[in-house]
Structure formats: structure tokens, C-alpha cells
Amino acid sequence: MKRKIEMMIVLFLLSTFFSIAEARNTIMVTAATGALGNAICEQLALEGYDLLIAGRNPEKIDDLKKMLTSKYQEVHVQSVIIDFSDTKTIEEAAKQVSPDSIKGIVLIGPRPLLSKNGIPDKSEWAKIFAETFIAPLEVVRLFTPHLQDNSSIVVISGNSSKNYMPSYPNTNVIRLAWTGEVKNLAHLFGGRKIRVNAISPGVILTRHHIERIKTQAASNNITFEEQLAKETAAVPLKSYGKTEDLGNLISFLLSEKSAHLNGTNTLLDGGESNAY
Ligand SMILES: NC(=O)c1ccc[n+]([C@@H]2O[C@H](COP(=O)([O-])OP(=O)(O)OC[C@H]3O[C@@H](n4cnc5c(N)ncnc54)[C@H](OP(=O)(O)O)[C@@H]3O)[C@@H](O)[C@H]2O)c1
After folding, report:
1. 206 Rama sector, left if φ>0, alpha if ψ -120 to 50, beta otherwise
2. Do the Cβ atoms of 32 and 61 come closer than 8 Å?
3. Which is nearest to 263 in space by CA: 207, 205, 197, 212?
4. Neighbour count for residue 202 (Cβ, 10 Å)
5. Using CA atoms, how far apart are residues 51 and 29, in angstroms rounded to an integer?
6. Which residue of 57, 67, 111 sits with most ligand 1 atoms within 8 Å of its CB, as the best mutation to test the pocket?
7. What angle do CA 103, 263, 45 make, to 5 degrees?
8. Which of 25, 72, 92, 154 is the most exposed place for a label (fewest CB within 10 A)?
9. Tens of pLDDT along 27-63?
């Protein structure tokens, strides 16, 4: 009898421990080592979220994990290797994560680098579609069992999902594919109260765009500021976004403050898009 009571106490303590572990607010961020991923991880860590960071490069992921754990010591950071050009890495990563341990996913995919001239050939399409749509969707499919009910998935798309941007031909097809898929997923997961929303940023001033603007400025023989003013002339707010702008919107979509927001695609472009 005494042994039975001891066993019951041990079981009770174990279940309490695991429910605490599971109740932690862990957010998974894919392509976490990129400019947006990095900034988003920092913002979520600052807000006290635990993180599951995913990336293709083990060294970069390790460096990011070290930076986050030394800067935000209360935050638990787990890492997995996910390479969108190899879906086996997604299967392996999913096996390493316990069920019901994730409270949200910020799904960032690689930049859809499609040729801007004419129609890309079928092998280019197949590669880019596989890496920027099929593989990130595989993350959603394989990690859904690890998502808690009442959680939130945020897909990072791009503003050509809403408005045709002549400088982003072909990639707009990938962005639109995600708009359709977000609706699909919102319906598929609604029963579990898992919300799925997309954010379509305009240009966010990351290294990639700063370098691009510098190059453009040099070729136009004008300053960086003049080039930036020229590019943002059609944006009502006359500026590009900051990573904090994106982080704030993600934070809102992950939180209970957006509890009834589902299946949406929100533009974050300072009003640049003129589509209704
Ligand atoms: N920045 C913007 O203004 C902006 C605006 C709208 C949409 N977006 C979209 O947001 C996403 C991230 O943008 P970003 O500015 O953070 O770009 P970035 O700094 O160039 O980062 C790209 C990220 O994608 C990862 N990646 C590339 N190929 C991969 C693969 N096969 N498997 C796994 N990861 C892969 C990179 O990994 P490594 O670190 O290992 O290279 C890196 O983490 C892109 O889809 C971009 O098009 C960006």
C-alpha cells in the first residue's frame, strides 16, 4: 500500500513537471538565421517566449542559439536543422519535438528567387516551388501534432500577394499560393482553434535591401538617402518598414489579442498597395 502511494506521488509529480514543460509558450521560427528570422527571434525572446529555432546551417543556428541564451537568460531555446531543399530534414526535426509542446509557428520561407525575364523554365519552377511552398507546408503538416490547441501560425509572405508589383514578377505566384493555403489551413485547423494568418510585408529595411539600395544609388550617381526617397515616393508613409514593425505584428498575431482573427493576409507596407 505504502509503495502504491509512493508510486502515485511520483506519477503526480512527473505529470505536473511535464504539464509545466508543455505549458511553456514555445514559438517555432523557421529560416531563423535570416535577417527577419533573427530579428523576430530577438523580439519574441524579449517578450519572454521560449523558442524553437530552425535553420539549414548548423553553425549559424548554433551561433543564434548562443546569442539568444546569453542575452535572454530566462528563455529556453531549442534548435532543429531544417533545410527546405531536403524534406527529410523536416521529418527528422519533427521527430525531435514532443507532442503539444509548441504554442505557435512563424513560418518564414526562403526568398523565391525566380528569374524576372519571361517564364522561368520547368526545372526552375519545380525547384523554387518545392523550396518556398511545398517544403514550408511540410513543416506545417509534420509539426501540427506538436502544436497545442488554441495556438497560432503566422506565414510570412510578401506584398505582391495583394498587388501586382512589376519588379517582383513570378515570385508573386508563390505569394499568392500562400494566400490560398492560409485559407485552407484556417479551415483545416479551425476545429482545434488553431489560427492561421499571413503577413505580407513590403520592403523591410534589412541588410539585403540596404545593399540593394546602395547599389542602385551608386548606379544612379545619387546618395543612399536620395535613392531611398525616390523608392518610397509612392508609399503614403514615405518610408520602408523596420524589423520591429514586423515583430510587433507577429507578436499580436501570436497573442490572445488576435483571438478571432483567422485566415487573413495583412499588408505591412506603409500603405504602398492600392488594392482594396
Ligand atoms: N526583408 C524584406 O524586406 C522582405 C519583405 C517581404 C518578404 N520577405 C520574405 O521573408 C523571407 C525572409 O527574408 P529575409 O529578409 O530574412 O531574407 P534573408 O536575410 O536573405 O534570409 C533568408 C533565410 O532563408 C534561409 N534559407 C534560404 N534557403 C533555404 C533553404 N533551402 N532551407 C532553409 N532555409 C533557407 C536562409 O538560411 P541561411 O541563413 O542558412 O542562409 C536565411 O535564414 C523571404 O521569403 C523574403 O522573400 C522579406
Report:
1. beta
2. yes
3. 197
4. 21
5. 7
6. 111
7. 30
8. 92
9. 999 999 999 999 999 999 999 999 999 999 999 999 9
Residues near 19 by Cβ (< 8 Å), separated by ≥ 6? none
Rounded Cα–Cα distance for residues 75 and 49 (Å): 7
What the block records as the C-alpha cell of 37 is 528570422
For residues 201 and 245, give the distance between their C-alpha atoms in angstroms, rounded to a whole number: 10
Query: Ligand 1 center to residue 70 CA distance, Å?
Result: 24
**Ligand 1 atom having least distance to the Cα of 159:** 6
The secondary structure of residue 126, as a DSSP letter, is H
The DSSP output letter for 159 is: G
Helix (H/G/I), strand (E/B), else coil: 80: strand
Mean pLDDT rounded to a whole number for the chain: 93
Is the Cβ atom of 109 under 6 angstroms away from ligand 1? yes
Q: Is the pTM of this model over 0.85?
A: yes
Give the model confidence (pLDDT) of 131-180 as tens digits. Answer: 999 999 999 999 999 999 999 999 999 999 999 999 899 999 999 999 99
- Please tell me the distance from the alpha carbon of residue 21 to that of residue 25, in angstroms, as a whole number: 9
CA–CA distance, 86 with 63 (Å, rounded to integer) = 22
Neighbours of 11 (CB within 10 A): 10
Contact 202, 242 (CB under 8 A): no
Domains of the chain (ranges; CATH) run 2-204+246-268 (3.40.50.720), 205-240 (no CATH)
Total number of residues shown for the chain: 276
The C-alpha cell of 82 is what? 531544417
C-alpha cell at 268: 505591412
